[in-house]
Design brief:
The chain is α/β, with parallel strands linked by helices. It has two domains: 58 residues; 380 residues, Aldolase class I (TIM Barrel, Alpha-Beta Barrel), CATH 3.20.20.70. It has an eight-stranded parallel beta sheet with strand order 4-13-12-11-10-7-6-5. A three-stranded antiparallel beta sheet has the order 1-14-15. A hairpin with a 2-residue loop joins strand 14 and strand 15. Helix 6 packs across helix 18, helix 11 crosses helix 12 and helix 15 packs across helix 18. The radius of gyration is 25 Å and the shape is globular.
């Protein structure tokens, strides 16, 4: 490899300079000493396992860490110009990195956030805080039609496919999930040996391409699905309807990433670009969707089955609720993906302008299920820019039962947000199928980072809830989250949003919901 050749050439140059210093003139040590130091550093970089960037870029990678010392000044530059980038902000990345490394994420001198900025939000502490629970709570996934329920952790690995991520990245995520006792969503790219090998609990995601359970012409294959769903590591099955970063369009895996191994896992031709259709062939109406989910649960032997979506039309979701009522069956869970989330490459116009943000999507789904009298049968997951304990608590308060994280988990295994995921040239080996680059992800080290990050974040969420006087998510109420409307006005979520009561849509829909509820048709998707 080029990097090894360059280190060898540097070593040879250092050796020549050292030889000249010994045999000719001591002045050669002026050149030989720095060269030998560089060689020793480069060799150390290649052999160490903690920093992926240094394994792939010996010596040069140190420039990245040197730049970290300038982060406060860089952040102030953007604050002064009111620039908000699409990636996670510095403070969020710092929290994830520090928790993954197992070091203290606390900093002195208070917050740098402008709490008087319109749109800012904060949680309300109680004058009578509670002790922090020692055992993190679990969420039972499984409605009345489920015979193999699963107890979900409060924070899990969100959907990221093998193909989009490297084999070592998948191994690190699943091993971390196994060590920490939480779930790992496979993404829509199928079940691979890297998901199954470490032993972590899996949520098998099925997308519009039906990868891993598709016929030759791209239809859903019941026999292959049933066979793979029976695997003991598969705890739940999730049907992906839409993704937060790009709702309404399919995914793309460039041909350069479709290796023989990935082609086998997905059931597609090697070396050809794989395009997931924007829609499912297995259903075309809300009623057919509900029936298909019930069929999937039957084929999966009674394991929990649900679906994931980025919420768009409230009327369409209410149509699905009506279909559930008329068919007498429900999914066991629904994962709400926020439009602000998404690790996958997406057209900027979709990422910026299509789909509801996570908070609004959660409240829509939660209230619709409550109003239809179905909330006790369906658990709600939240995915989309969930990274910290406060993020987790906010999502629980907005209607979720548990959360999933994608980008934060990528940070835990070494992602530096180079935003080159679609080029197959990820500098830290996370989002690439280049084996030389992927080698930088040391599974043993990175899996421990995933475990530590998840554990510390859940602990932080429990500490925050306890400070609010809530023992767990059941004690959270909408009035506990405040939103600054303008520099002089603050309103709670209880005041800002309509919260339905159980069965209210069936008995007497409130004016704000009545039109959509009346127009919702269980036999037709419509905006």
């Amino acid at each position: 490899m080029l990097k090894i050749l360059l280190v060898v050439l540097l070593g040879a140059t250092a050796a020549i300079a050292a030889g000249a210093a010994v045999l000719s003139s001591p002045w050669w040590w002026v050149a030989a000493a720095p060269l030998l130091l560089l060689v020793a550093t480069a060799v150390h970089d290649l052999l160490q396992r903690r920093h992926s960037i240094l394994r792939n870029y010996p010596l040069l990678g140190h420039l990245r860490f040197a730049m970290e010392t300038l982060r406060p000044e860089i952040q102030q530059y953007f604050i002064e110009r009111n620039v908000e980038g699409r990636p996670f902000d510095r403070d969020t990345r710092s929290i994830v990195y520090e928790r993954a490394k197992g070091t203290d994420a606390e900093e002195p001198f208070g917050t740098e956030l402008d709490l008087y900025r319109p749109g800012s939000e904060y949680l309300t502490p109680s004058m009578a805080p509670l002790p922090v629970p020692t055992d993190p709570p679990r969420v039972r996934i499984g409605g009345p039609d489920c015979t193999q329920p699963y107890d979900m952790a409060l924070l899990n690995v969100s959907a990221m496919s093998f193909g989009s991520l490297s084999a070592n990245a998948i191994l690190a995520l699943n091993t971390g999930a196994q060590l920490g006792g939480f779930a790992h969503d496979t993404g829509e790219g199928g079940l691979s040996e890297y998901h199954l090998g470490p032993g972590g609990d899996l949520v098998w995601e099925i997308g519009t391409g039906y990868f891993g359970c598709r016929t030759a012409d791209g239809e859903f294959d019941e026999r292959e699905f049933a066979e793979k769903a029976a695997h003991p590591q598969v705890k739940c099955v999730s049907l992906k309807i839409s993704q937060g970063a790009k709702p309404g369009i399919g995914g793309v895996l460039p041909g350069a990433k479709v290796t023989a191994e990935i082609a086998k896992v997905r059931g597609v031709p090697q070396g050809e670009t794989v395009i997931s259709p924007p829609y499912h062939r297995a259903y075309s109406t809300p009623r057919e969707l509900v029936r298909f989910l019930a069929r999937m649960r039957e084929l999966a032997g009674g394991k929990p089955v649900g679906f994931k979506l980025c919420v768009g039309s409230r009327r369409e979701f209410l149509a699905v609720c009506k279909a559930m009522l008329e068919e007498g069956t429900t999914p066991d869970f629904i994962v709400v993906d926020g439009a602000e989330g998404g690790t996958g490459a997406a057209p900027l116009e979709f990422a910026d302008n299509v789909g509801q943000p996570l908070g609004e999507g959660l409240m829509t789904v939660h209230n619709a299920l409550v109003g239809a009298g179905l909330r006790d049968r369906v658990r709600i997951g939240a995915s989309g820019k969930v990274a910290t304990g406060s993020d987790l608590v906010k999502r629980l308060l907005q209607g979720a039962d548990y959360t999933n994280a994608a980008r934060a988990m990528m940070f835990a295994i070494g992602c530096i947000q180079a935003q080159r995921c679609h080029t197959n040239t990820c500098p830290v080996g996370v989002a690439t199928q280049d084996e030389r680059r992927a080698r930088a992800v040391d599974v043993g080290d990175k899996s421990q980072r995933v475990r530590r990050y998840q554990e510390a974040t859940v602990k932080s969420a429990l500490q925050i809830m306890a400070s609010m006087g809530a023992e767990d998510a059941r004690g959270l109420r909408p009035h506990m989250l405040l939103h600054r409307v303008d520099p002089h006005t603050v309103r709670s979520y209880a005041e800002l949003h309509t919260w339905l009561t159980p069965g209210q849509l069936l008995a007497s829909p409130p004016e704000a919901w009545a039109g959509d509820w009346e127009a919702a048709d269980p036999d037709r998707f419509s905006g």
